[in-house]
Amino acid sequence: MRMIIMIIIAAGFIGTLCSGCSSRLNKDYDYKTVQSNFSEGRIIAKLIGTYETYENETLRTSPYEIFLAIESNTKEHIAATLKNVKLTDADSRKIAFSLEVPIEKKFVPDSNGSFSAYFSIKGLDIKYVNYELLLNFEISGDDKSKLQKRMILHFKKAYKEHRSNDFIEKIMSV
Question: What predicted TM-score, i.e. pTM, was given to this entire model?
Fold first, then answer.
């Protein structure tokens, strides 16, 4: 009987604490991560939104960042160079972003045994629509060889919405 009374008191106490808590609506205008394999490795691409927090809601939306990881299966590859990047609205075919200045990154070892070159293009103020990403890149080998690649990747919208309680979030972060 004492146990039941203690549970009721605890539930009442927590209920009282939470009555002043605010509930936050979280809206993620997100995109599915894209992955594509090629004979010497794979490429992983993400279109990541920026968080904006308001009184009762948090949005992840524009400006976006294009994050690219070019993975190589061999340590003979020493660098990857983005030659051309073009982000196009999948429906209207309008170019939302274009980069034609080469960017070179060295491959670094990963924990999974592969080697990766990482690229980040930030500050893309774009609409929330489906996109095609055209990539022209080159992989350089330690023997001065160059491997040219052209890929088209598709970013599909993946909108998510959920509520969170600020009080519960604070407790869980401790």
Answer: 0.79
